[in-house]
Structures are given as C-alpha cells and as structure tokens.
From TrEMBL:
Keywords: Carbohydrate metabolism, Glycosidase, Hydrolase, Polysaccharide degradation, Signal, Xylan degradation. This is Glycosyl hydrolases family 43. SUPFAM superfamilies: Arabinanase/levansucrase/invertase. InterPro entries: Glyco_hydro_43 (IPR006710), Glyco_hydro_beta-prop_sf (IPR023296), Glycosyl_Hydrlase_43_Enz (IPR052176). Gene3D superfamilies: Glycosyl hydrolase domain, family 43. The lineage of its organism: Bacteria, Pseudomonadati, Bacteroidota, Cytophagia, Cytophagales. Belongs to the glycosyl hydrolase 43 family. It comes from Dyadobacter arcticus. Residues 1-23 form the signal peptide.
Length: 349
C-alpha cells in the first residue's frame, strides 16, 4: 500500500474502532449481504417490487497497490436480487465480463443500472485500451442480465462511478466522476492530461473543488443528450466548496435520490472517508452542503446508494469486515433515517 493510502487507512481503522464503541447501543449491526464472493460499490434499485443490487465484484488479482488503485482490478459483474430487505441476496451469476466489452482494457469499477422502455441498462466504468477511464453501457431484457455491451463507450463520457437517476417526469440523468485514480482531474481543461495524478496539485488548494458531472440521457438511454455540466456544491454562505475542504468536497461515488420535491446529491469524500450530501430544488443543482450521512467504515473506500422500499429508506454501502483488506470489500444495508425537515441522520457504522 502506498504511504498516503496507508496512513489514511490506519486512521480510518482507529476512527472505526472508536465509532464502533460509541455505536454499541445501536440496533442490530448490519452483516455482509454476500459472503462467498467480495462485493463493493452497491447500486441498489427497486424494479417491479423487488430489490436488485449492482455492485463491483472485488477479486485478488495480485496487482501491486498504487495511488491510482491498480489493485482494484475487477473483471466482471454479478447482480444480486432480494425479495425482502432482510435478504437473502441471491447471486444471479456473471452478468457481464470485461472480455465481452469490445473497447475495454482493465478495471471494471462501480456500475449502476436503469430501466426504461422495457429494457434494462447497465452502466459501467472501465479503462479503455489506452488506460483511460470511460463509461460504457450494456443492455438486457432482464434486470439480472446477461447484458450485451455496446461497441464503444458513451461518447463524451470519462472518469468513473456512473449513477443514473430517473426523475418522476421520466427524464434520466447520469451523474459521474471521481478524482485521483478516477481520473476526473485529468479532464479539467477539456483535454486529457495524464500528468495530473491526484487532483489539480499545489497552488490550487484555495480554488473551487473539482465537481462531479451530470448529463441528461437521450430517450434511448445509450447516449448523453447534452454536454456534461458541473455538479456544484455550495457552502452555508453560498460559495462553492474549495479543493482544500477535504471533509466536504466531492471525491467519487455520486448518488441522486429525490425526497418530496428536493433532490439529494450524495457522494464520498474519498481520503476523509465520509459519505456526505447536499440538497437542491433542481437535479442539476447547485446543491447546498447539508452534512454527513455516514462516518468512516473499515477500509479506505466508501461508496453507497439510497433507495425507498415499502415506505422506508435504506442505504447500501460496503466495508471490509470479511477480509480486512482495502480492495476486498463486502456490501451491507441499513435503514436511513431522517429528521422531520428531511435532513438525514448521520450514521455511526
Ligand atoms: O471499486 C472501485 C472504486 O472504489 C469505485 O469506483 C470507487 O467509488 C471506490 O469505491
């Protein structure tokens, strides 16, 4: 493990030990939903009254760890289905393999899914043959696949962690992006610049943070209907969060849900290991930062999704309870609770 990942991981373990002590009075501790393979980055959806989980499938491939996350060297996706929130999570087998994606090189990272016009769409980030992350789409008539990948990445897509939100009016939006190993910073000027390894680097700390991106999807759900726009997050004074504000700024793992007439944009703060959120009256934002959804879990990465099922809200997330290793994660679920004003109660995992 590289030195700054190592320091952050040890810090997150200490955080988790103290949080776990504080949380001992909490209700039943969530258990890994899947134990026979490693799973992460769970994007959950309710299709036809049933829960479907679209996670990454972590594997040990013995690729040495580096700052760009080369050890997250995943090669396929399995999709899980649950009739009820208390499980079990049924493994529906391999839904898409990297060898069946014509343009893919390596590293199948966090996917998401959507349903429209009788078709299920699986969205996935993977490095192309030049080692540049792009976002692809694959289709199936079944929520569990198998999925068939399109011949090329979505034109105009880049970076990682697609999350597709279907609004009540039937319009769909893709949120995406991730800094550091997710390469978002490399597209800052509009042209790909491989020299930017983590963020914009020294001298940019007091500039606005890099933003996630959002683009409305065309009706066919295969391409963007517009050029991606910035997902701006404002502080309590209406100013964009700064790059140096690592406890609040966007890092990766975007998710969108709607509660009443408000749009909740949630995300991981990466190196500070928090799940945070902001609220807006538009799916495009700007979003006003509201707080922390979940404090650090065991492991380096933190990644989630939020769904409503049978009148209650749930958060799906991962930690490393089963393996103790950053790149071999396991998915979990727990209830998401709100205050009367719709704000989300912080979870101490
Ligand atoms: O699983 C690989 C990457 O780790 C995801 O794309 C990120 O969100 C982080 O969870």
């Amino acid at each position: 493990m590289s030195s700054h990942y190592k320091i952050a991981f040890i810090a997150s373990l200490f955080c988790c030990i103290s949080y776990n002590v504080a949380a001992q009075s909490n209700a039943a501790k969530p258990k890994p939903l899947v134990k026979d393979i490693y799973t992460a980055d769970p994007s959950a959806h309710v299709f036809d009254g049933k829960i479907y989980i679209y996670p990454s499938h972590d594997v040990e491939s013995n690729v040495p760890e580096d700052d760009e996350g080369a050890h997250f060297n995943m090669r396929d996706y399995h999709i899980f289905s649950m009739d009820d929130i208390n499980g079990p999570a049924k493994d529906n087998g391999v839904a898409l393999d990297v060898k069946d994606i014509p343009w893919a090189g390596r590293q199948l990272w966090a996917p998401d899914a959507a349903f429209k016009n009788g078709t299920y769409y699986l969205y996935f980030p993977v490095k192309d043959k030049k080692d540049v992350f792009k976002i692809g789409v694959a289709t199936s008539k079944s929520p569990t696949g198998p999925f068939k990948a399109e011949a090329n990445p979505i034109p105009g897509s880049y970076s990682i962690d697609p999350a597709v939100f279907m609004d009540k009016d039937g319009k769909a939006y893709m949120y995406f992006g991730g800094i550091w190993g997710g390469q978002l910073q490399r597209w800052h000027t509009g042209n790909y610049d491989a020299s930017l390894k983590t963020d914009l680097g020294k001298g940019h700390e007091n500039e606005p943070a890099l933003n996630a991106k959002v683009a409305r999807m065309k009706d066919d759900m295969l391409v963007f209907d517009e050029a991606p726009k910035d997902v701006i997050i404002l502080d309590e004074n209406g100013k964009p969060l700064l790059a140096s504000d690592s406890n609040r700024r966007f890092f990766e793992g975007a998710w969108m849900h709607r509660f009443g007439d408000k749009y909740y944009f949630s995300y991981s703060t990466g190196d500070t290991h928090l799940l945070a959120y902001g609220v807006s009256s538009s799916p495009y934002g700007p979003f006003t930062y509201k707080g922390v959804i979940m404090k650090p879990v065991t492991g380096w990465t933190t990644h989630h999704s939020i769904i409503e099922f049978k009148g209650k809200w749930y958060i799906f997330y991962h930690d490393v309870e089963l393996s103790g290793k950053t790149h071999l994660r396991n998915i979990k679920v727990r209830e998401l609770l709100r205050e009367a004003d719709g704000s989300i109660k912080t979870i101490e995992p």
